[in-house]
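Hey team,

Sharing the D-inositol 3-phosphate glycosyltransferase run so nobody has to redo it. Sequence (405 residues) first:
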Amino acid sequence: MSTLEKPQSSLHVHLISMHTSPLAQPGSGDAGGMNVYIDRSLRALLARYPQLSVEVFTLVTSPPSRSVEQISSRALVHFIYLPQAAGAHKNDLPAFVPDFARALAQAARRKPDLIHSHYWLSGMAALEYAPETPLVHTMHTTAAGKNARASADEPPEPEIRLAGEQKIIDAVTALVVNTETEAADMVAYYGADPQKIHVITPGVDTGIFKPLPSQPPTHRGSSTQARLVFAGRPQPLKGPHLLVEALALLPRDLSVELVMIGRSGTGYEASLLERAEELGLSSEVSLVDPLPPRGLAAQLRRADIVACPSSSETFGLVALEAQACGTPVLASKVDGLMNAVEDGATGHLVAPRTAGAWAEAIEALVRNPAERSRLRAAARERTLTMRWADTATALMELYREITKE
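Structure output:
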């Protein structure tokens, strides 16, 4: 690694995303809202601050076609391949944190002024790699938060993750969270120092996620038909199974189509389709491969309702993207989704998290096209003030404060 002194005005950041690449397609494998957050906030930072340069480090579990990808003149992504971790599942990755940290140190081209790590595995790698370097960390999700809100069919998070998160929170220079709810969780579950916590809200690309007259809602004005869209990694935490069960409880005079966008690679989505067949809903339930932003935006625009039935979300970017498209959202009344959706104004929060409650919420909104129209207008308006540029500004102010530049 070069030991050359940096110019006084420059800032070099190492961004660590160990378990998933920010360039990966959201909605597939382990890629989701965190990938969107890292990618969009990074690009906004680079666009606004020419003095910033960034190296991103991510683990790949199969030999990559290239070890480095230049994503701008001032940013590159290192794809770190560890033969001993070939084919490893996300749950196996804690054992490879020390190896990843050593490989990161060898791959780095410049010494960082600070490190920004995302998710607990990355935080542990950062502490191994450069324990004396200022560390900004974003959890995205926490074991304690997930365990506290998990339903009976969700396995608890492992003790090694709880211990790792505690170690990170005790050691960080700054902890970035999406909402005040998440900030409160950090204090309540981990005893985090409130002075280290910084609430920085994610944004949405309203240039891509926007209403288009050429792509209206599929059943605008209907009180008996609707297209319901779920977008995200299919897994019990996200709750798509609740939507399948809810459809079976709807009155027979309603015709609701459920489109699920995403692939987990675990076989969970196959179980959803099997359950739909058991319930006689094969023609009403479909699964679509993950889509790039413009394709996802088109699907969200065509939806009459977007559903986010998660048991826990630190924010819920899909809910925000749907609102930017002018689509009403039904979301679980849990942590971050209570911030992402303005209850009664841009959508409705659903509780309890049961198929019955979801069936009632879906039926009520399907039968009321005037309410859907009202929500559409307010949803778009709300997102116009939530920009990635603002997220980038807040992050840079924090970086400068930490490095005293």
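The radius of gyration is 21 Å.

Ping me if you want the raw files.
A.
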